[in-house]
Amino acid sequence: MSIRSTPSFYITAWLGYSLAIYTWFLLFRSSSFLWVILGLSLLIIFRCITKGPSSVHQSLTFPGITFPLSRIIIRSSSFLYFSASMYGLIDIILELPLYDKSFMLLPLLISACFLGGASITLAQID
Length: 126
Description:
Strand content: under 5%
Low-confidence stretches: none
Radius of gyration: 16 Å
Helix content: over 70%
């Protein structure tokens, strides 16, 4: 049984994707140019979640180029996905109306492990 076929992977991947969309919206609202780069990588990650990284690898493979450009694009998109989802999660935690946020450290570390696992799984090409 592949890890991509488990429901926990899809729940974690879509949760991370929604946090990355939240970060994309924050970048768009702050008039940063990074929202374009993050938006393009989120399109690639969306296709990786829905159809798998192999289909993205096949669509980004150019004839005559032996350099693994598609692997670099998928891995950098996966890294941006992880970074954006972690930033979104930290921003949501900081926006909570709590005086002491130190008790949120353990759930943040656990979430980082889950989101990191999902982003690593998305970057693996069969």
